[in-house]
Structures are given as C-alpha cells and as structure tokens.
Amino acid sequence: MNEALERLWPDILAHLRTYHPAVCRQWFEHIQPLSIQGGVISARAHSPVHRDYLQRQCLQFFNEAGQAVTGRLISFRFLGPNDKDARDAGAESERLQDLRQADALVINPDYCFDNFVIGENNRLAHAASLGVADQPGRMYNPLFIHGGVGLGKTHLLQAICVKILQQSPSSVLYYISCDSFMNQFFDAVQAGTMADFRHKFRDVDVLIVDDIHFLTKRDRSQEEFFHTFNALHQINKQIVLSSDANPEEIPHLEARLVSRFRWGLVTEVLPPGYETRVSILQRKAAMRSLSIPDDVIGYLATRIDTNIRELEGAVVKLQAQSLLDKQPIDMRMAQLAVGDRPDHAGQKPTIHTVITAVTEFYGVRLTDLQSERRHRSITIPRQISMYLARLHTCLSLEEIGGYFGGRDHTTVMHAIKTVDNRRKTDQEFDVVVGSLHEKLVHNGRPA
Question: Is pTM, for the whole model, over 0.85?
C-alpha cells in the first residue's frame, strides 16, 4: 500500500461507518487496500464471494466515501485473493458469472454457516444444509427447506453457496429466484432461445432456487422445471429448493413435482425461541461491530418474536439512532426502535418494565436475577419478577425462564405458585406484590 492510500484508508472506513452504517460489516476491516492510481483505488477482498459482494452491493458507497475523503473523483475496484490486475478480476468474475451471469442472486458473505445461530427451530435444516455443502449431490438431493418469511431459509441457501465455493472454487453454481427462472423461461420461449436457456440451467454442478412455491399455477414453467430437475438429478447434480410451504401444501403444484421434491430431504425451519433470538441479536450486532447492552438485547428478544428479519431490522435502527444521537445504545433507543413510546403512561408493560420495577424496589440488579445465586435476597425478587411477567406479558413460561438465565418452564411455574401461595398467607408480602402490580397496571412502566 502506498503512503497516500495508507493515510486515506482509515478515513474512508470511518466515512462509511458514519454515513452508510447499514452497509458496513466487521469484515470490512480485513479488506486490503493496495494502491491508488489514476483516480482508482484497488483493494483486495479475502475471497471471491466477498469480492463479488463488494462489487455488486457496495461499490457506490465506497466510491462516494473515496470522493468525500479525497475531494476528488475516485472510484474503487475490488480484487479477489488470486486476482493480479483488473483483467484477471474481470476474467474471474466472468467465470463466476457463468455461475450464471447477472441473473444470479447476490451471495452475501455474512450468510455463512459460522454466522448461523442454531436452535431447536432449525437444527435439522442446518445439519442437512451443512451435509449438502460438504458433499454436493451425494447427501440429500434435492434438499427442500420450507418455513415462514424471515426464519433463515435464505441464510441456509447462501451458506451452502459460500461453503461450496470456498471448498471448490471451480464449481458451477447457479443461485436464483423462482421468479427469475420463470421470467427467463418466458423470454426464451418468445425469443426462440430455449437451447441457451437449458444450457444455463442444466450445465451446472449446483442449482439453488429460492421461493419455488411461485411455480404454482404456471403449467408451462412447471413442465420446464420438471425436465430441468430430472436432467440434473440423473447425473447427481445438487438441487436445493426453498419454499414457504412443504411440497404437498403448495397449491396447484403438479403431483410429479411434489413427488420429486420429496425424493431427498424435506425439512422445516420454525420461529426461533427466546434464547435463540437473543443469540441472533448478539450475532447481528457483532457482525456490525456494534455494542448493545444485555438488557437491551433481552428487551428486543422479548418484544420481537416473529422472525429474524425484524430482529436484524431493529439492530439496524439502533445503529442509525446511536449515530444520529451520538450516544451509546440504551433502552430508550430500543423502545423507539420497536415502536414503544417510553414516556407514554398506560402502555402494556414489557418484561423489562416488570423487572425494572422489582429490581428498583429490592435494590438488586438484573444480572443477580439471571445468576445462579439462591440467597433469599435474590430468589424472592426473582420469583416476583417471574410472577408479574406472567401476569402482565404474553410471554410463554419458556420465554420468561430464558430471560432469567435460561431457567426452564418448570422453574417459572414453581415461582408463580410460590408467590401466589405466599400472598394468601403473608399480608406484608401481599401488599408489596400488590403495589408492584398496581404500579405496572397504571403506569405501564416503573415510575
């Protein structure tokens, strides 16, 4: 790296973090700046997947950062680990794009197996995906992953792509949406170029199709995909499909396709539980080099229980708000990120407001309640917190227990029963619990 670029590079990354935080990733720190010549900054990514992602998704942001920092018309070019110059980069990129050209979906290097959080909701789907990536065409063929929106199907599909290309860079892999398959098919029919279309889809080592349920009601597309599937399967080329429903539940899908989709392994991903949501938030924050306090992580995991995309969206909002306010992330930002108004009296209490009320009254900390400590000074407020959380929130027993150091549902049930019984026999205790209950009912948060 020449001296001029060495001075500029930290400022370029700082500009990106300030003005384009949603784009920034922890691995940007591993990009190697090489040279600046003729208004072009050359930088090396540590894999072809990272290079292609930077080129297709981040180029405009790096160009803007370079121009802002230097005050000159600057552009970037990204090289892979073995690219020697622009011609090599172009040739390699062209080879990967016979990985099926600009129609292929962008592979995000963040969506690798190392960044996938495994829970009871996705354990089989993860194991199957890893097996397919290690032995394409020999483990489960096809691999059919189904589940609701934002539950990690796309992450698994892209993780398969990343691992296969890491292990076998020469593999011809085509990762595409079902919608693109159909559009290309109709364009080829109209243009009379079906031979080219079939070459594109059938001369591959791995075909990965996202949202295959969109084939529904498309008779001609189903016919063509049926033959594409057969052509690949007969020569042991790997097929991976994702859908929002299992094959039998996709409406108007031909029986012969349903049968073939079930030839390999059909596996489902379900919504993540509380502990998995906590781990996902921690992982998403780490990928962005973002520091989020544990109580904020717990609050978000409690409030957002639908899908992973909403969890990631909350992390992005927190990052933007923190930069805007020039303040570290705190609970107020978290409440704003999920649409809660911290100053609004009467809103439904969250588990955080329940715990805050109890810990302030008893003078203990959240970490005490989450610890293994069994002293009465800790167990009593812990049990009251569980009791009030069950009373005031919609959380399951499992989710409440997860917030208190991963305790199981039987522990929560015991706490609720203990508090309920003691209120009947201990008047002073009943008054304390009753006053905390009333504070939560009337304020929606601790005063």
Answer: no
